[in-house]
Amino acid sequence: MMKLMAANWKMYKTRAEAVETARLFAELIAGRLPADREVLLIAPFTSLFAVADEIVSAPGVFLGAQNFYPAAQGAFTGEIAPDMLLDAGCAYALAGHSERRHILGESDEFVGKKVAFGLAAGLSMVLCVGEKIEQRKAGELRQVLTRQMEAGLSEIAPDADISTLVVAYEPVWAIGTGLTAGPLDIAEAHGIVRELLRLRYGEKANEIRILYGGSVKPDNCGEIIGIDNVDGVLVGGASLRAESFAAIALA
Fold first, then answer.
1. Which residues are annotated as a binding site?
2. Annotated active-site positions, please?
3. Which of 93, 176, 185, 208 could join 181 via S-S bond, C-beta 3.0 to 4.6 A?
4. Sequence ranges of the domains in the chain
């Protein structure tokens, strides 16, 4: 299975900064990306077209968006439609990132609508799931992941093409905190996610990549992607510098 190394730039970078980072990153990995690796740059809306131009000739490097509204068009001021993302050169989009769930109040059900709508529109979708620290301490990991996965996949038909679906496990307590879940913690969570996918999709679940996100850095990435059921990483802070994300992509 191809490993997916994803960079989420969140609300950082002007267009010029995004172009400079994408250009340097493409130069650093040119001719060096392993055959089993794909890279995803998830840029701010304002930089999508410009970043697309920078990576158009970089093999194995794709563009993604951080969000969209689950409608083809309409009176949704301030929102972006999937077709607009495709037009900008995006191949992927995120849904259910913890910051949108816990800061912007997106419900499990709304996340599910995005996943299904994005897939139907032609985007590869990254469904993000994960627990808060109080939920982990209360032993609620399985319950939280089950609820988020069931809602996140609820509007996708069980017999649908799921080859463009990705799941990212991101323990909320390890995002931007410098903390990283230990190997056993990651293996447990990814094992639960794989189990839930198999219950829904059977053997087809083995085609779905599961990423780990939570303070991934060049010095811990190699160990993380060697854990069972870890098919790549979703990187925040360490992806903002081309040098550090290149080290991760090549780990």
1. 8-10, 176, 215, 236-237
2. 97, 170
3. 185
4. 3-249
pTM: 0.96
Residue 227 C-alpha from the chain's centroid: 18
- Dump pLDDT digits (tens) for 95-136: 999 999 999 999 999 999 999 999 999 999 999 999 998 998
Q: Is 152 exposed, middle or buried (0-12, 13-18, 19+ CB in 10 A)?
A: buried
Residues 155-188 pLDDT 10s: 997 677 899 999 999 999 887 777 778 999 999 9
By the 8 A CB rule, do 98 and 236 touch?
no
CATH number of 3-249: 3.20.20.70
Buried b (16+ CB within 10 A) or exposed e, 198-227: eebbeebbeebbbbbbbbbbbebbeebbee
